[in-house]
């Protein structure tokens, strides 16, 4: 997977999300569901971790509801997600068994925290309203100004504590949402790297570009941006080293050499008198 500078615009992100007000503060008694970098449910000093929910499908039910709009799903969707090969009678029994297990656990955190079963829907509900780190991150990104304010972008970036549900990488239930959130994170890194490059703050630009390259090492464009940032910050040896790392990665991943533009950059690094066209960094 690669991300190209400018390929994920702020407008594009807003179309992906439902616009909301500014992220709101959440009091301790509010149930909080964490899914970025790992799964945990907390309420004040009390918490539920994955090992406290022994059935995988029980954990999946909470995760699916927490990731759904208004924390609700149609019963048929739940059946399709969790028991695609069972008949309706079996799935109803399995669902009742999971609810029997989950409801006391949720109640132990907050007496209003439960999974409601209506005629058509399953609803994860509580008072005060449930908070999730995924929704908070998405709201923070959606509320960013198009004109970059570094503090706001940094604050949103800090909310991304890791990829969505990393312990569920082999389940296809969360792949699309995980990738979308990851693209948002990469977008923030790219915007901050570009901002600090324009401001000639090469130390900050290098820091964000290093994260981008670590996240997607086979992306030649971000590799080149990091090479240029090293060069602009006066670290030509690091720039040459990074270029050689890029060459090796491109060969391993694609069996290809760097682009002609990248090769001209290398020639300039080796011999600064070599003519070099200025490479743009995500305008």
Briefly, what is this?
The protein is an alpha+beta fold and 283 residues long.
What are its keywords?
single chain, 283 residues, alpha+beta, Arc Repressor Mutant, subunit A, Serine Threonine Protein Phosphatase 5, Tetratricopeptide repeat, four-stranded mixed β-sheet, three-stranded antiparallel β-sheet, 7 strands, 53% helix, elongated, disordered N terminus, disordered C terminus
Description:
The chain is an alpha+beta fold. Among the domains are: 25-131, Arc Repressor Mutant, subunit A (Orthogonal Bundle), CATH 1.10.10; 200-283, Serine Threonine Protein Phosphatase 5, Tetratricopeptide repeat (Alpha Horseshoe). The chain is 53% helix and 8% strand. It has helices spanning 10-16, 56-67, 75-82, 88-109, 133-142, 150-158, 175-198, 202-215, 220-232, 236-254, 260-270, and strands at 32-34, 40-43, 46-48, 72-74, 114-117, 121-125, 131-132. Strands 3-2-1-7 form a four-stranded mixed sheet. The protein has a three-stranded antiparallel sheet with strand order 4-6-5. It is elongated and about 75 Å long.
